[in-house]
Amino acid sequence: MIRPVPWVAPALFLLCLAPAVELAHGLYTNALGPNPLETLTRDTGKWTLRFLLLTLTISPLIRLFQWQFLLRYRRLLGLIAFQYGTIHLTTYLWFDQFFDWAEIWLDILERPFITAGMSAFVMLVPLALTSSRWAQRVMGQAWKRLHRLIYVSAFAGLLHYFWLTRADFLEPAIYAILFALLMLARIRRTTTVSAGES
Ligand code: HEM
Predict the structure, then answer these.
(1) How confident is residue 198, by pLDDT bands cut at 50, 70 and 90?
(2) Distance, CA of 17 to CA of 83 (rounded, Å)
(3) For residue 193, is pLDDT > 80?
């Protein structure tokens, strides 16, 4: 059995923050290209999706290799996804809409890719709020059911990405395939478990 190493969690945390630090540094040194705010929005969007997919990878890895120690990093990865999502949303509210709430509301209602993105983010909020071990213990089975929202959120995030892409669908397609594989691993497990139970 692999034992957890104490410094791995802080090291992983710092590694996950590296893209944010690089973006902040790029913004400060004017190195984000001709449209830095657009780069900021786009990059933080991609990092949100990447961390959501990474979070979803943990359970299949645990099942496949019995790496129980990975469980302690799942929460960290999920919270990092939420952190990038919050920065991503903030760049939109601030630099795209200048906090014009009436415009933002219209945008959510009228542009399907914004509706999908907003739905994906809103679903992450209860997950972040109930991510503590205490909440998990108190909520029991309800916690498991609630945290299945991460699948819907990742799906809505992908939809959001496909909707806003005009050309070159390669990158969203790669994320979609990864997501489909992760879902397949889950469905296979559910059917194997139910077949074993019957
Ligand atoms: C879980 C939540 C979300 C995920 C996973 C996500 C993901 C993404 C991705 C992958 C991109 C495209 C990056 C690229 O083209 O290179 C993107 C762009 C964008 N997202 Fe999100 N997003 C989320 C939530 C939101 C929310 C809540 C809003 C605003 C209400 C939003 C507004 C935008 C905008 C304005 C763009 C740039 C569109 C453009 O440049 O044409 N996103 N997002």
Answers:
(1) very low
(2) 10
(3) no
Q: Is the CB of 153 under 6 A from ligand 1?
A: yes
Is the shortest distance between the CB of 116 and ligand 1 below 6 Å? no
Does the Cβ of 123 fall within 6 Å of ligand 1?
no
- Enter the pTM of the model: 0.93
Do the Cβ atoms of 161 and 175 come closer than 8 Å?
yes
How would DSSP label each residue in the chain?
Answer: -PPPPTTHHHHHHHHHHHHHHHHHHHHHTT-S-S-HHHHHHHHHHHHHHHHHHHHHHHHHHHHHH--GGGHHHHHHHHHHHHHHHHHHHHHIIIIITTT-HHHHHHHHHH-HHHHHHHHHHHHHHHHHHT-SHHHHHHHTHHHHHHHTHHHHHHHHHHHHHHHH--S--HHHHHHHHHHHHHHHHHHHHHHHHHHHH-
Pocket test for ligand 1, best of 35, 48, 163 (most atoms within 8 A of CB): 48
pLDDT, the chain, mean: 94
pLDDT tens readout for residues 171-180: 999 999 999 9
